[in-house]
Give the backbone structure.
Amino acid sequence: MRMFVYSMRDFDELPCFEKYCAKYGVDYDYTVETPCLDNLEMARGYEVVNIITTVIDRPMLEKLHEMGVKCLATRTIGYDHIDTACAKELGLSVVHISYSPNSVADYTVMMMLIGCRKLKHIMERADVQDYTLKGKLGRELPDCTVGVIGTGRIGKTVIRDLSGFGCRILAYDVYESDEVRKHAEYVDLDRLYAESDIITLHAPATEDNYHMIGEDAIAKMKPGVILINCARGSLVDTDALIEGIESGKVGFAGLDVVEHESGLYYFNRMGEPLNNPKLAILRSYSNVLVSPHTAFYTDEAVANMAENSIVASMDVMAGRETPYLVK
């Protein structure tokens, strides 16, 4: 199998690709450039193109198809950045991957603790040498009810970890799990919103989930609710979130993802206008922590992303079944 890798990070990903391509006998080349119509010719002669979070639209897919590419691999769990309907129409297979759920789960719990203990506000005040206690009173995580929306691999891991804190845990998913029931109670969304002190999102980006956290959902939540999103930016209506923060309904938001982040995250935009004024508003609040889509970023997860994108592509090219084929 011949694979061409775009957006290669030579400081962390390249050693993984060198290791696993050698292990599986894959012929590969790469570029640090982001894929676009102007550089897709680099991949001519390769069966598989490997990307990360770049938007891959119809013109790009048609170009890849014309070049003879058979499989597009994204080394991400989500694949909403790819026009999968067009890929299917062209007969171009699309595969995604999984990686260690501990990476995002750890980060999620960290965000919860930061919110509970008002750490961003505490550190901002410490930066100007305000060491008083007023306005810094926190709460203890074991005393909180946590609502987990989405109980796939990451959601399950968050629930497992929270069980060690002694939290009361509510869960919601279209597909319920007996494993989750050991630590959490499945409830409908209205009850989860009404009873949770902390709500964390671990659902995929789909048409049905678009802006699931909007004005109506926030209105049903407890005053001062802590909202964590380490999943997908499109799950949260940014305007409704800003309104909720301004009104005091949302006491803290921990956001590793935001709407319209494509073209921002994983690039150095220092000194440039970001064309995302709502992101600037969110970052201005002392009770909002915005990180640049880094919850996944651990040594284990990066290795998983490289290896699993290779293995899933090999399975598709060999006609073998793989759970990572987008259907």
Remarks:
- The chain has two domains: 2-99+298-317, 101-290.
